[in-house]
What does this fold into?
Amino acid sequence: MARTPQTLFEKVWQRHEVCAESAATPAVLYIDLHLVHEVTSPQAFALLSKRGLPVRRPERTLATMDHSTPTTTAQVFGGAPITIDAAARQVRELEENCARFGVELLGLRHGQRGIVHVIGPELGLTQPGKTIVCGDSHTSTHGALGALAFGIGSTEVAHVLATQCLLQRKPRTLAVKVEGTLAAGVSAKDLILAIIGRLGVSGGTGHVIEYRGDTIAALGMEERMTVCNMSIEAGARAGMIAPDETTFAYLRGRPRAPTAEAWERALEEWRQLPGDPGARFDREIDIEAGAVEPMITYGTNPGMVMPIGGHIPQRPGDPAFARALEYMGLNAGEPIKDQPVNVVFIGSCTNARLSDLRTAAAVLRGRRIARGLTMLVVPGSQQVKRAAEAEGLDRVFLDAGAEWRESGCSMCLGMNGDVVGRGQYAISTSNRNFEGRQGAGARTLLASPLTAAASAVRGRVTDPRELT
Amino acid sequence: MERFTTLTSRTVVLPAANIDTDQIIPARFLTTTTRAGLGKRLFADWRYDEHGVPRAQFALNQPAAAGCRILVAGRNFGCGSSREHAAWALIDHGFRAVISTEFADIFANNALKNGLLPVIVEEATAAWLIAHPGAALAIDVARRTFALPDGTTVSFPLEAFARHRLLEGVDELGFLLAHASQIDAYERRA
It folds into this structure.
């Protein structure tokens, strides 16, 4: 009898069931790779200490520090103290916990340190078919390589440290099929913002998304990461893309990817992962790539998003909508183009990889950022930083008047002191425009690196296609 | 974990939809390395002005909110970041249940792990609750119901294992550790 056709997600899920779920109990799901950072792990290590438990599989666990770490070279490498005491304490505590529990740490001055979702793929640790978790909701990023990757809370971090497993109910599946060609000036960031606009911020709740279709197949690996990264902004736990030749070419030769015969075996296994013909999803939506324009958010969640040339929607009688616009200091029915901005942030696990920096630098080459504007460029990892410097991108940003920093989450969530001032407008390549996300009272406009760089030149929200 | 069988309390209402975990506990308070004391930072930027002075009009600052253990909120409560600090802050403040039409997945997971009950209700029930702040409710975990002040009983969904854990105070880590032989077997064949 023929096997029931399975989706990519179903294959990965089934291969990791230690115990299948029943009506009474969730599945016990095995986790191949656990990424750990300084902010959501201290309470988890404390739980292990309290119960006298070891880390079950230290070799499946990798720690780094990114969320609360400084980005100024003086504080990272120059011996200057970390200015925020509590952040310094978190860094120390992670160092101590990793030493005590035997977990490998890419620490503050390590050449391979970076944002946890940038370094996983970069090192070749993120691989097709793996289950990957981290105490961070943007763990969905790793799904770009065909892994099942999702964010967990600190209690679950402790569960994985102690047992390498999680208790999970099987999520539903949602296919987002994208067909056609993205127009010039339209990037993967614009595509995912358009998808979130269509689904809404809770449209993916309870689901794992699989992005499919010829547009997705044509995306480069870093663009796919941008798409999967923001799955959580539509409420989905995870986003996945079937592994293909683009995935394999990206992984080949990376420091922790399999080599020689192991590589050939892995390749054979990975080629079995894409969904079977006829596999069914619980839900499906279609997106026409050719209709996507450069997108920008105008409100206080990523679903409040519009084409950059459009007018801010009007929703009379919706107090939440009115409140969001009041916080943003913007008016319904008006264009967003030419809105003055104070800060431009190029960074985050969404858009701080080499291709993102190249895109922004191409706009800024030979240009200056607008007078009075602050622009922060924060590479996603130390490796991205060095690669960008080898191409001279740091000079392009510095000559344009931007700041060039050490890697980290930085202004995406403003934990480390890199913040946007109260009432100021920031165009940010990050993933969340929640109230106060980038600093108390900060007003965030999410956009692509191209739109952010073009807006930095003019000091106003700028359609990158109009910058000549 | 402490057993959670019933809860009787008046409600506090935050009608906004999509209350994200950055609102529940802003990122700048995540530099803590413990779970304790986060209640005073709960909804910090809504509760206090930029000088740290409580905003009198904010629901949690009103005298009627004192001692309330049930929060009623607009749809999609707890979206955004996976920070368990959001659940810890709500509990530290005194909440034991949140009622909404919809919860973000990671928040609901984190809440249940800490004995904070996410109660999912229909639109009509939510609308009534939002319009009646301070309503006295009696939640029964075993029956998966709560009683409105007029005696009407409302049912809510609660995953079977989560219900069992709340009622019996089951330690989930202990439950997982008890699967050691199955995990060993999986690792041998994987």
The longest helix of chain A spans residues 85-101. The CA atoms of residues 338 and 443 of chain A lie 15 Å apart. The mean pLDDT of chain A is 97. Chain A has 16 helices and 19 strands.
